[in-house]
Amino acid sequence: MRTTTLTKIVLIIALCLFSFHRDALAIGQTRYVDCVSSKGSFSLAQKEELATLYVDSNDYAGVIRAVKDLQADVARATNHTPKVIHEQASLGKNTVIIGTIGKSQIIDQLIKNGKVDATQIAGKWESFLIQVVQDPLPGVTNGLIIAGSDKRGTIYGIYDLSEQIGVSPWYWWADVPVEHKDSLFVKAGRYIQGPPAVKYRGIFINDEGWALSPWVKEKFGNFNSKFYTKVFELLLRLKANYMWPAMWSNAFNEDDPNNPILADEYGIVMGNSHQEPMLRAQKEWDRRYGKSWNYWTDANNLQKFWREGVRRNKNYESIISMGLRGADDTAMAKDKPIQEIIDKLHEIIDVQRKIIAEEVNPDLTKVPQLWCPYKETQEYYEKGAKIPDDITILWCDDNWGNIRRLPTEQERKRSGGAGIYCHFDFHGGPRSYEWLNTSPIPRIWEQMHLAYRYGADRIWIVNVGDIKPMEFPISFFIDYGWNPDRWPADKLPEYTKLWAEQQFGQKYVADIADILTKYTKYNGRRKPELLADTYSLVNYREAETVVDDYNKLAEKANKIYKTLPNEYRDAYYQLVLYPVIACANLNELYLALGKNRLYEKQGRAATNDMADKVKELYKKDAEITNYYNKVLAGGKWNHLADTTHIGYTSWNPPPKNIMPEVKNINVPAEADMGVAIEGSENWWPMEDSEALLPEFDPFNQQKYYIEVFNRGRVPFDYKIESRESWLIVTPNQAKVDKEQRVWVSVDWQQVPTGTHRAAITITGPNESSVVVQAVVKNPASPKRDQVSGFVEANGYVSMEAEHYTNAVNKAPVRWLRIPDLGRTLSGMTPFPVTAKSQSPGGDGPRLEYRMHLFNSGKVEVKVYLSPTQNFHNTQGLRYAISFDDETPQIINIHVNDTIPDWKYPPTWNQAVSENIKVMISEHMLKKPGEHVLKFWMVNPGIVLQKIVVNTGGVKPSYLGPPESFHNSG
Ligand code: REL
Asked: In angstroms, what is the span from residue 314 Cα to ligand 1's centroid?
């Protein structure tokens, strides 16, 4: 008997620990639900025996509704449905008592009787307490109390329990399965959360024309309350509270009158986009007045229109967008003098506030309002527009995730506070990006951390396009806003793992987290819509390495897919596999396209193969889209993969993907040998110049390729000879049908000291031959294992920021590594981000990079930085740079960004497209040998990703040369 019980316990524990069991049910929170009982634990479910769920019928309708979700969630996990009751008389022995302080008699009574101490949450915003209480009330032996400080506090408490029992906030929106559990226990203890650090946290559904709209039409008819309640529920499960609704052809309040009613009942605070003031969608205006609004000519109609809007929604919780922009995301008056526009803005806000005072509350400080200095409207503010103190200023990013402005010390005193509106999706220039998730969480962290530390914490709202496929960054954005202190930079990898675990269980956590981190990094390097002609085809094997890495990731993601139990596959496909295989395929397509064009110039027989490959990959792209739309989850997400992404010619998406133009050539029959080499687009014997491979050195111990290719249809044999026995060439003879890649490397045990030139002779058909030169540099010193720091090769030293030799801190400033930030490895930034500016030099904070150079004279230092905006609106963000004892040169990263008219500076297009800002300084080095490069802090907010010291050999590439050989010394 005892053995059986023991076996059972062991089995249950094993089930809890292994396979797809999910520990990280509530990301970043103490885990309080278990599937085995423990001392003093509360039994929520034990086979058919379920605790009763009690909620006062006088509590908020939204709380009562959420309890029904909890009831359904328990059933999802256990297959048994608990009872929901509202009468005190029917309280069972085991009851979950749920209620809002001040709205639930029982909760108030428990607090009064001292059974529950709610002082930590009472009167706070959106806070809750979950506590196991023995004998809380007569007849109740075991109680689980979920008490909320306010309506959403209670709702969040309810959904927190749901999350802990294994229902992911994405259970419906991403088909995340709920793992079956026979038993659920809440461990003895008190679990408190809130208040959130950011008061309003939400999303903006936008640019919904291509994917979300047809999906909504097919599944819900229109953007009605059937659709929106799905969104509201998701937001509450994520602990978000705020939203701007879809607005392209839609009007939230009008398309379904139940929309605002249900938003309010659920507990979602509604607003409208930055261009739609006074709780009215632009479409409502268009439907009535049919032309663009203009306050100069339409003041009366606009005032009437606004009055109707705030009157209609006055009983619902909202944040009212204030001010005015032109219709359709344009400036309100392009040709008028700026002062006239500012005066008009003042007049508009005055009128709007008068209407609000008359219609909603004469005490305007009680009515949440925001003004959003989006695009041109920021100029009005910087040039003197005065925004009433109690209105929240919702600062914006540059549409590409880089915050344009943060509150100054003075502005931080405003009673309305500040917030941030930013983008994971954008319809506009320099190119729309609306297809896949391209926002790695380290950059979201870095920017929102800045925002938080500079006091922009009243509202965070992010443009998420169609919601899908932004699931992962949405979770992070909301979780980070809830409790930024829980997620310092070094915990970001943990966040990714916990998120992966919440959706897929423990088994593949590390691998899935790795996939999420890498695919977002790869997509963050350049938006897929901009990908054509990005990576170098010939230098540093850049394009093929990117494709190789992406394909390896796709292979890994696919392998996991195949071994996952069936019920996890849909979720995994949409959250992990799809973005990886879709973008790996696209990268490969552009590599094939680049090769097709290069090969055509070289007359390679393989030109047409590359054209076929492009066609095949283009077809595969359509198949992936089709799978997402039609097969995944039985077609549940049809259209959500419709967004076009191939064939852009401007910022505006093409209406349909367009197959890129490929080149086909007529290949003559006769065999004809061509030779191409790494680092060059030329081919020989066509070219007059010398065929010279990049240099070989004992530090990096490179291998470089030579490509022997056929310009005819008949295959031929080649032979390769070199006099140097230490030069390894493989294969040194072969039959070439279309092309053969030959690898050249050096046997470093055999090479004599010094610089050598080795000729490699390739002999092909009809006695044709090509000579390729290899330069091999084997210096007497330094020696590979003795050198400390980096070593120059091929005319450069390339260094990842985190591979500094020395980080010099100076209290309170220290250097912070932000893992996985940026295009290559990670980012280094001076911390805290609110630290005072520093004068570079002396013992100032700096990163030091030791290196050995073989060259001297003039060198160029290229510093790769995140494209941070001039968020202080001062002269620009600066760092300083020096070699050895040089006086540091101060470099202003915004020096070329002077914005006379507050439009985006010309350098901005390049910086956001490339997702990097490269600054160059020149230095004079008297002699070769050991040097120390110093990167000095001047302003906080600068994020260093990579440094390249160019002694004359850097070749064009997108990411810059790969990292040079280095030793920690
Ligand atoms: O991303 C933005 O904030 C804007 O482009 C949009 O809010 C804008 O109103 C656009 O969707 C409308 O055409």
From this structure: 25
**Quick one: pLDDT at residue 90?**
87
207 Cα nearest atom in ligand 1: 11
Which pairing describes strands 733-736 and 691-692: parallel, antiparallel, or unpaired? unpaired
Cα dihedral 105, 106, 108, 112 sign: positive
Q: What ligand 1 atom has the least distance to the C-alpha of 428?
A: 5
Q: Parallel, antiparallel, or unpaired: how do β-strands 704-710 and 727-730 relate?
A: unpaired
pLDDT digits (tens, 9 = 90+) for 361-370: 999 999 999 9
Neighbours of 857 (CB within 10 A): 12
pLDDT at residue 14, as a whole number:
47
Residues 171-206: tens digit of each pLDDT: 999 999 999 999 999 999 999 999 999 999 999 999
User: For residues 862-882, b (16+ Cβ closer than 10 Å) or e, as one string?
Assistant: bbbbbbbbbbbeeebbbbbbb
Residue 900 has pLDDT above 60, yes or no: no
**Are 641 and 629 spatial neighbours (Cβ–Cβ below 8 Å)?**
yes
Which residue has its alpha carbon closest to ligand 1 atom 4? Answer: 329
Q: Quick: pLDDT tens for 595-604.
A: 999 999 999 9
How far apart are the CA of 951 and the centre of ligand 1, in A? 45
Q: What's phi and psi for 892, nearest 5 deg?
A: -95, 115
pLDDT at 5: 52
pLDDT beyond 70 at 143: yes
Spatial separation of the C-alpha atoms in residues 712 and 670, rounded to whole Å: 5
pLDDT for the residue numbered 64: 98
Strands 42-46 and 183-186: antiparallel
Q: How many helices (H) and strands (E) does the chain have?
A: 21, 40
Torsion of CA 757, 760, 766, 767, to 10 degrees: 60
- Ligand 1, residues at Cβ distance < 6 Å: 206-207, 273, 275, 328-329, 399, 423, 426-428, 463
DSSP 196: -
Q: What is the share, in percent, of the chain residues with pLDDT greater than 90?
A: 94
Contact 966/791 with Cβ under 8 angstroms? yes
Closest residue by CA, ligand 1 atom 2: 426
Q: Check whether 1 has a pLDDT greater than 50.
A: no
Which residue has a Cα nearest atom 9 of ligand 1?
329
- Tokens matching residue 76: 């999802």
Residues contacting 396, CB < 8 A, separation 6+: 274, 372, 373, 374, 375, 378, 403, 404, 405, 420, 421, 422
Are the C-beta atoms of 893 and 917 separated by less than 8 Å?
Answer: yes
Residue 644 CB coordination number (10 Å): 19
What is the rounded average pLDDT of the residues 714-720?
98
332: alpha, beta or left? (left if phi > 0; alpha if psi -120 to 50): alpha
Q: Which atom of ligand 1 lies nearest, measured to the CA of 426?
A: 1
* CA distance linking residue 848 with residue 869, whole number of Å: 25
Per-residue confidence (pLDDT) for residue 901, from 0 to 100: 57
What the block records as the tokens of 94 is: 């085991």
- The first and second tokens of residue 544, run together, are 């093929």
The residue to mutate among 212, 247, 470, 904, having the most atoms of ligand 1 within 8 angstroms of its beta carbon, is: 247
β-pair partners for 744: 704, 729
Mean pLDDT value across residues 325-350: 95
Residue 142, token pair as written in the block: 């075991």
Per the prediction, the chain carries an average pLDDT of 96
Q: Name the residue of 203, 204, 207 to mutate for ligand 1: max ligand atoms within 8 A of Cβ.
A: 207
Spacing, Cα 203 to ligand 1 middle (Å): 13
Nearest of 525, 520, 349 to residue 436 by alpha carbon: 520
Which atom of ligand 1 is least distant from the CA of 396? Answer: 3
- For 70-96, what is the mean pLDDT? 96
Q: Which of 329, 398, 651 to mutate to test the pocket of ligand 1 (most atoms within 8 A of CB)?
A: 329
The alpha carbon dihedral of 533, 538, 540, 544 has a sign of positive
